[in-house]
Predict the 3D structure of the following.
Amino acid sequence: MKRALLALLLFIPLVNAQSISIAPYGDGYATVEIEVPVDDYATQVTVSLLGSHYEDVFVTDVNGNPLEYSIEGNEITVTVQNSQIIKIAYSTPDLMTKEGLVWTLSLKSEAPVDVILPEEASLVDMSESPLEVEGNKITMPAGEVQISFILQNLEEQKPVQDISTNTGKNLTKIILPLGALLAFLVLGFALWKR
């Protein structure tokens, strides 16, 4: 039995990702996308996942066709079905922490990682110098990765209206119709009494 299991494990290679892309969000989750090349004649591949809780897991081939998979611990085993590249996408809350206003994305990767920050993010700190920066995409080297950022809420940046002015306008909209209604009632009552 042990020999059969060992022989099976030899045919299921543990592969490293070709590319890893992570998009952190202001709700504490991050979407992870992993592309993995498949060796010729492989029927299954096993890939290490980032984090320990996985939601909305999608595994497809390069054409978007779904592939069978199973998750055990922090590894996913995919039945490749003649695919040359497999794509794994999922969401996890395990990569993000928040202290005050600062969000920090923390992970350890064996391959370079593309971190795609939200448009409204302001970078605060990075664990290492990036390999490349292109717009809101930061390519970090393999190893320990930490990126800290603050999300600028566009709603909070709007100028604050003077409450007394705003209240006055709303009261005017209410008082004028009530005054007109009261005038009609008084006039109607006066005409009715005659």
